[in-house]
Design brief:
The chain has 112 residues and is an alpha+beta fold. It contains two helices and five strands. Helix 1 crosses helix 2. The longest helix is centred in the N-terminal third of the chain and has 19 residues. The N and C termini lie far apart (68 Å).
Length: 112
């Protein structure tokens, strides 16, 4: 009698491999916030790249007209905000549309 073999991806008893950063709910919330901002910026026609370097801080690089800006998500315990690498507080993660428009303006006028 043969039993069908199943991979770990389809077998419900075997957990999926865990990646770093998914243990921490704050880290996951920051990633989700940056993904939401990335989706809005992409819809506005801005090139973006979401990276997580070895220090485990998610960064969204926004490029337009040869100029770029790095945006991170800061906060904890349900209160998060977007912050540039230069320390400028952009606003709360609940206000994604206006943050995206502000970033486009910053890139168009080459302001930091």
């Amino acid at each position: 009698m043969t039993t069908p073999t199943s991979s770990s991806a389809t077998n419900q008893n075997v957990p999926a491999p865990r990646t770093r950063g998914h243990d921490d709910p704050d880290q996951r919330a920051r990633e989700v916030g940056l993904n939401r901002l990335r989706a809005v910026l992409t819809a506005l026609g801005v090139r973006t790249r979401l990276t997580r370097p070895r220090n485990r801080i998610w960064r969204l690089r926004v490029h337009k007209n040869g100029w770029h800006e790095t945006v991170m998500c800061a906060g904890s315990e349900g209160t998060y905000a977007y912050v540039t690498a230069h320390g400028r507080l952009l606003g709360p993660t609940s206000d994604v549309q206006s943050i995206a428009r502000l970033l486009v303006w910053m890139l168009d006028h080459q302001q930091r």
